[in-house]
């Protein structure tokens, strides 16, 4: 196995173009496990840790640009205000050691439906920045995942960053696991509220993401549209009153209905659907409470 | 109480908290473990494990592998050194008669060892080695109803069945009856330090560095297996990073290392991977236990029946002694306990933390809680009503028994008196709250040991004993014991352990180490002090006194000797997701004389944490089609993470055992006993739903809730 250590992004892209089978490695929290268990034997590893550009946090227009090699620990420490949903999800990743090493870029590269960052990326309409010697393109998160551990990334492409709108309303992330830490999600759910619309102008006032309950991370589009319509038609954004329980309930059912879960060792499909409806209702309660509190403070 | 007669009398150190003597070496990495001690010219062995659950090895295609870089040898059943079949501490042990024939009794059975210059080369070659099998149909499906269930013969470790009175008549005459089945899954002990062994020939002696709980016992086994004089085998285990029973016996890595050292005439090290540990070092059998209790309305037991079923392998019989606990805890006119076992195509189970008592207490202490509810009684009051005066089965007196003292102190500290006994009555937002309690007990046994204590010319003392420190603090406790026995300060004592050359001693297991070793050290120290009282100077090589406690132990009165305890837990249950969170635990123990409160508390907290894991997390899952584990790693085999463990408070009550010279009972095992039951009882109290199958997973809580039972 060759170990390639490019020093710059250009070198990294050239290396990936020359050896498309090379497996990129940043924190190694997925790749090293697969190598250790011998479920994967790449001809070459492409170590991205020397590439300074990939560890940068910046902005581009109204969006934040977060380098693919920025660790979960840095997202928690440096981006908690701008990206509260992603910071919450990052806190549920592994242990402190894993959060020091693991990256969102790695989560995207592995494209496991159980990856903790995916639901938030979906709920926030994040764009995945993919680069190759041919150029750079932006892929909406919703179109990035193709199947369990498969994405639309071309063999010569590297994930260089993701772009994401800073929060303009409350965000939440909730995850069910069989213990409190160091756990792969049985299922997870992210919710974002955009009372004034989204920074890029695309998408509605509600964003959702479902993890670990389908072959790919999923959006609950029907649930988003239902909730957005209910909030708008009843003037709830303006009145800031408590949500009718029928709305919360239906939202939960629609989220559960959007999932495509299977039975596996971590949980049954039926449990996942049920738990997702609970997580959806719960995160909606939290975000709405926090929106109402915020609205009161502004008034 | 230690007499204070010497002129150098120091304040007694037993009973005072001391940090570990080797603590600094461990946290700085200076302490070396079996898998990391450097040796010149070291070769590395990599175990190749079977991928089928039952059948025969047809061929081992070693030729291509022998041509790979660095490969020195491929050992398998056709070329490995022949081993003597021998009876060890517990009789013959087929689990270490490896590479002797072509039979494959389970997935993960050692079928070859690849030896190479580096660990990486050995692993690469082991992965490349093609082994062909003649596969046979296997059966790994455990249940109490399995047609292969049989009643095993009594063994030195277990009386299979006990009984008195008429159970059926007792149950029929009882106003209140509990008759339920409880199950626990296959559970594993995976110490932080994997099993590792290095073997080499040194001037005609076999020198072994091995991670185990008893270097003398391992040396004896190796001498017999390889037809060597015991004097020409030396086994050392200076530091061991956890064991919990999994290193209690000679295990495959050390046998393979010796075989490879014979074949290659080089030092060879074999280290198990985490995944391999799930198949060749023992584990806890799943259990299915039926408990039948019959009582009068005042809670007094008339009938007591505990029937435990477990599994073993096709090559060796090990019986999880789950029904043993009732022989100590509760009496009834009709009293019956029994064990059955079934042979399946799985690895051989073995001792794992509180063997028997851990799963047994889950079933029994849950059933007692159910009985208390049916009688409308407080579960502590019900236990007090059934407190036996003598051993329920043996009729022997207890050396000391302060279980009620544990409950009294525990109830006071836990705030038990304020508890609303109704289930499902306490709610805090989305959480239902509940509290539960359970009794704990574990035998306080002792075994013969030898020790040597030397008065050095410089005024210091050296203690030599084949004890092992598994991370428990044994080295420190023994230093305290020696200091008190010699009535000198701690810094004048050097305790050397874990070297089979020091002679026979009890293994570090069964909560017996400290008591057994303390007896030997104290006896040698007493003898040494008698010699020192004679006139004359200490020669340059010192004066040494030796002890052997076999005779003294043989003369001990027959009694029921046990540690006891009371476990308390508070849980919060989210009935919408089924999540269970333990909020606090309290354990109060009566465990004789506590040598080092600091390390004792750590051991008990560790045991209770393990009980939490047992209640909520631990479960090894096997694929019925292949017979292999689905989750043989620590990402898939869950135990509690730090974030799952709440405030755990541990303390002990006075428990003087005047019948034993040391007064020590041992407390390695008892921390886990009853802990899972206390949590399960708390989950019932929170929700009104009884969980009789471990672990109490979110989906089980949810399903049980939706059934509305």
Question: Could you explain how this protein is built, in words?
Answer:
The complex is a heterodimer of chains A (299) and B (709). Chain A is of the alpha+beta class. Chain A folds into two domains: 152 residues, Uridine Diphospho-n-acetylenolpyruvylglucosamine Reductase, domain 3; 128 residues, Enolase-like, domain 1, CATH 3.30.390.50. In chain A, α3 packs across α4, α8 packs antiparallel against α10 and α10 crosses α11. The radius of gyration of chain A is 19 Å and the shape is globular. With 709 residues, chain B is α+β, with helices and mostly antiparallel strands. Chain B is built from 17 helices and 26 strands. In chain B, the strands form six sheets. A seven-stranded mixed β-sheet of chain B has the order 3-7-1-14-11-12-13, sandwiched between helices. A five-stranded mixed β-sheet of chain B has the order 9-17-16-15-10. In chain B, strands 18-19-24-25-26 form a five-stranded mixed β-sheet, sandwiched between helices. In chain B, α9 packs across α10 and α12 packs parallel to α13. Chain B is globular.
Question: Topology of this structure?
Answer:
The complex is a heterodimer of chains A (299) and B (709).
Chain A: E1 2-4, H1 9-18, E2 23-25, H2 31-36, E3 44-47, E4 57-60, E5 63-67, H3 72-78, H4 84-91, H5 96-101, H6 104-110, H7 118-123, E6 127-132, E7 135-140, E8 145-147, E9 150-151, E10 158-164, E11 171-176, E12 187-193, E13 206-211, H8 221-233, H9 236-239, H10 245-258, H11 269-298
Parallel strand pairs in A: 1-3, 2-3
Antiparallel strand pairs in A: 4-5, 5-10, 6-7, 6-10, 8-9, 11-12, 12-13
Chain B: H1 23-28, E1 43-49, E2 55-61, H2 63-66, E3 71-76, E4 87-88, E5 91-92, E6 103-104, E7 110-116, H3 119-128, E8 130-135, E9 161-164, H4 167-172, E10 176-184, E11 196-202, E12 205-210, H5 215-225, E13 233-236, H6 252-264, E14 268-271, H7 274-280, E15 287-295, E16 301-312, H8 326-329, E17 334-343, H9 357-375, H10 379-385, H11 403-414, E18 426-428, E19 431-443, E20 450-455, E21 461-465, H12 474-486, E22 493-497, H13 513-532, E23 543-548, H14 550-554, E24 562-574, E25 579-590, H15 597-616, E26 647-652, H16 675-687, H17 698-707
Parallel strand pairs in B: 1-14, 12-13, 16-17, 21-22, 25-26
Antiparallel strand pairs in B: 1-7, 2-6, 2-8, 3-7, 4-5, 9-17, 10-15, 11-12, 11-14, 15-16, 18-19, 19-24, 20-21, 20-23, 24-25
């Amino acid at each position: 196995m060759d170990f390639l250590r490019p020093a710059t992004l250009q070198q990294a892209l050239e290396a990936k173009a020359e050896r498309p089978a090379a497996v990129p490695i940043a924190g190694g929290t997925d790749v090293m496990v697969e190598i250790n268990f011998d479920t994967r034997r790449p001809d070459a590893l492409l170590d991205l840790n020397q590439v300074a550009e990939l560890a940068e946090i910046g902005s581009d227009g109204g969006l934040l640009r977060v380098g693919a090699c920025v660790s979960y620990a840095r997202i928690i420490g440096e981006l908690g205000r701008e990206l509260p949903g992603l910071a919450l999800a990052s806190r549920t990743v592994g242990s402190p050691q894993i959060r020091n090493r693991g990256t969102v870029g790695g989560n995207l590269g592995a494209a496991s439906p159980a990856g903790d960052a995916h639901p938030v990326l979906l709920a926030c309409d994040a764009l995945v920045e993919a680069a190759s010697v041919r150029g750079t393109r932006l892929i909406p998160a919703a179109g990035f995942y193709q199947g369990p551990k498969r994405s639309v990334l071309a063999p010569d492409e590297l994930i260089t960053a993701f772009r994401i709108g800073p929060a303009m309303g409350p965000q939440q992330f909730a995850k069910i696991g069989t213990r409190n830490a160091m756990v792969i999600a049985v299922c997870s759910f992210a919710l974002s509220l955009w009372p004034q619309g989204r920074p890029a102008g695309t998408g509605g006032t509600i964003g959702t993401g479902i993890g670990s309950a389908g072959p790919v991370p999923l959006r609950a589009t029907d649930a988003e549209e239902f909730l957005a319509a209910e909030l708008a038609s009843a003037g709830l954004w303006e009145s800031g009153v408590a949500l009718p329980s029928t709305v919360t309930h239906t939202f939960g059912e629609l989220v559960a209905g959007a999932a495509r879960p299977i039975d596996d060792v971590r949980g049954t499909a039926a449990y996942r659907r049920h738990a997702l409806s609970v997580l959806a209702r719960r995160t909606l309660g939290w975000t709405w409470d926090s929106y109402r509190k915020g609205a009161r403070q502004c008034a | 109480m230690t007499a204070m007669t010497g002129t150098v009398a120091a304040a007694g150190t037993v009973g005072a908290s001391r940090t570990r003597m080797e603590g600094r070496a461990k946290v700085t990495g200076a302490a070396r473990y079996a898998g990391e001690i450097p040796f010149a010219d070291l070769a590395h062995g990599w175990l190749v494990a079977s991928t089928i659950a039952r059948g025969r090895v047809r061929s081992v295609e070693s030729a291509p592998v022998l041509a790979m870089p660095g490969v020195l040898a491929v050992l398998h059943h056709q070329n490995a050194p022949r081993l003597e079949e021998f009876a060890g501490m517990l009789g013959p042990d087929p689990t270490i008669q490896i590479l002797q024939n072509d039979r494959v009794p389970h997935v993960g059975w050692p079928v070859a060892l690849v030896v190479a210059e580096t660990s990486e080369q050995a692993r690469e070659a082991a992965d490349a080695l093609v082994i062909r099998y003649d596969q046979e149909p296997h059966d790994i499906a455990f249940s109490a109803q399995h047609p292969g269930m049989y009643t095993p013969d009594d063994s030195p470790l277990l009386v299979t069945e006990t009984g008195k009175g008429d159970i059926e008549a007792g149950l029929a005459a009882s106003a209140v009856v509990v008759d339920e089945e409880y199950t626990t899954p296959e559970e594993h002990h995976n110490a932080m330090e994997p099993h590792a062994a290095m073997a080499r020939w040194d001037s005609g002696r076999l020198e072994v560095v091995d991670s185990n709980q008893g270097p003398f016992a391992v040396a004896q086994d190796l001498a017999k297996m390889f037809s060597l004089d015991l004097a020409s085998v030396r086994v050392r285990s200076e530091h061991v990073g956890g064991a919990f029973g999994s290193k209690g016996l000679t295990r495959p890595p050390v046998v393979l290392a010796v075989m490879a050292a014979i074949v290659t005439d080089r030092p060879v090290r074999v280290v198990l991977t985490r995944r391999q540990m799930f198949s060749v070092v023992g584990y806890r059998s799943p259990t299915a236990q039926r408990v039948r209790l019959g009582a009068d309305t005042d809670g007094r037991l008339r009938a007591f029946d505990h029937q435990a079923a477990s599994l073993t392998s096709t090559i060796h019989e090990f019986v999880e002694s789950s029904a043993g606990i009732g022989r100590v805890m509760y009496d009834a006119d009709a009293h019956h306990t029994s064990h059955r076992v079934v042979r399946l195509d799985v690895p051989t189970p073995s001792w794992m933390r509180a063997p028997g008592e851990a799963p047994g207490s889950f079933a029994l202490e849950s059933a007692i809680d159910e009985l208390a509810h049916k009688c409308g009684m407080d579960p502590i009051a019900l236990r007090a009503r059934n407190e036996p005066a003598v051993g329920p089965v043996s009729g022997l007196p207890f050396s000391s028994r302060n279980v009620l003292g544990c409950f009294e102190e525990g109830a006071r500290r836990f705030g038990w008196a304020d508890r609303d006994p109704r289930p499902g009555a306490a709610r805090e937002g989305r959480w239902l709250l509940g509290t539960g309690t359970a009794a704990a007990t574990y035998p306080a046994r002792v075994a013969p040991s030898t020790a040597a204590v030397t008065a050095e010319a410089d005024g210091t003392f050296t203690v030599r004993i084949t004890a092992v420190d598994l991370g428990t603090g044994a080295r420190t406790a023994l230093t305290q014991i020696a200091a008190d026995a010699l009535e000198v300060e701690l810094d004048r004592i050097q305790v050397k352990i874990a070297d089979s050359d020091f002679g026979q001693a009890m293994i570090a297991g069964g909560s017996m180490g400290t008591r057994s070793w303390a007896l030997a050290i104290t006896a040698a120290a007493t003898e040494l002090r008698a010699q020192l009282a004679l006139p004359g100077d200490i020669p340059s090589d010192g004066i040494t006194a030796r002890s052997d406690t076999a005779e003294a132990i043989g003369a001990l009165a027959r009694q029921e000797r046990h540690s006891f305890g009371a476990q308390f837990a508070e849980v919060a249950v989210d009935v919408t997701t089924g999540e269970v969170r333990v909020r606090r635990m309290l354990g109060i123990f009566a465990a004789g004389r506590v040598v080092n409160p600091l390390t004792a508390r750590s051991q008990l907290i560790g045991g209770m944490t393990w009980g939490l894991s047992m209640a909520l997390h631990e479960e090894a899952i096997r694929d019925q089609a292949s017979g292999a584990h689905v989750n043989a790693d620590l990402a898939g085999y869950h135990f509690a993470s730090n974030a799952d463990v709440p405030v755990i408070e541990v303390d002990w009550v006075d428990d003087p055992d005047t019948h034993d010279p040391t007064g020590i009972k041992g407390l390695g095992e008892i921390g886990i006993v009853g802990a899972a039951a206390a949590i399960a009882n708390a989950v019932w109290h929170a929700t009104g739903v009884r969980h009789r199958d471990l672990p109490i997973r979110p989906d089980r809580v949810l399903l049980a809730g939706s059934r509305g039972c």
